[in-house]
Amino acid sequence: MCSRMLSIILILFSTKVLADGMVVDKVYHPYVLPNEREFEWRLMSRQTDANSLIGQRIAYGHSISDTVMVEGYLIGEKTETDDFGLQAYEIEIRWMMTEQGELWADWGMLFEVEKNHASNDWEVTTGIIFEKEFGRTSLTMNLFGIYEWGDNLQEEFETEFRLKYRYRWLPQVQPAIELYTGEGYFGIGPAFMGIQRFDGQKQLKWEAGFISELSSSGKDHSFRVTLEYEF
């Protein structure tokens, strides 16, 4: 099992990684609950020596089966030269391929289609989601293939990789280490997540992370926050 895990990690790190925009974002888990509905809000901020970028996402999602979740996003961005405004729309589908604990690891897939608000620019993402528990720790990995084209985008295929290794200390507080690669970017840093459960299927999830880019000598820090209310 360990040798198989090591092989997967080596393959992911040997993949050439490129991406545009904000590399640091959510690390996806493969799980879907029956009849799940959720509201989600994300904040991503990237500060470099050259500029700064702030992005927000607001979403509503609903499971259409016991294993498939569909979510719609409104995406906004703010830069040093442009005020905050609507940037894009996105439809996301998550597919839980295996039941939790059914195999040696839990697997899922992600499909996204994004359309720029003000121009005919498109981005399609397909991803593999992996999660494995080791005692009270969990390893989660995402590998995404991204194809983009449009009036203002060069037609190209890119990849991104994300990793989270967390300690399930308490349901409400789970410290973690996150790693991101893309666009010649290699970033790592601390993160926290937690779940507060209420009656029935209602629960509030929160995540926060601070990621520093390590492959350049200049400042390149990213901060992310996610809130999800599931019901």
Chart the SSEs and their pairings.
Blueprint: H1 2-14, E1 37-48, E2 52-63, E3 68-79, E4 85-96, E5 106-116, E6 121-134, E7 137-150, E8 156-167, E9 174-182, E10 185-197, E11 203-213, E12 220-230
Antiparallel strand pairs: 1-2, 1-12, 2-3, 3-4, 4-5, 5-6, 6-7, 7-8, 8-9, 9-10, 10-11, 11-12
Question: Could you explain how this protein is built, in words?
Answer:
By secondary structure, this protein is mainly beta. It has one domain: Porin (Beta Barrel). It is built from one helix and twelve strands. Strands 1-2-3-4-5-6-7-8-9-10-11-12 form a twelve-stranded antiparallel beta barrel. A hairpin with a 2-residue loop joins strand 6 and strand 7. The longest helix is centred in the first third of the chain and has 13 residues. The protein is globular, with a radius of gyration of 17 Å. About 6% of the residues have low confidence.
In short:
This protein is mostly beta strands.
How helical, in percent, are the residues? under 10%
Oligomer: single chain
Task: Please tell me the total number of domains.
Answer: 1
Strand content: over 45%
What's the CATH architecture name?
A: Beta Barrel
* Global geometry: globular
Strand order of the largest sheet: 1-2-3-4-5-6-7-8-9-10-11-12
Task: Tally the beta strands.
Answer: 12
> How many helices in DSSP terms?
1
Q: Keyphrases for this structure?
A:
Porin, 6% helix, twelve-stranded antiparallel β-barrel, mainly beta, 1 helix, 12 strands
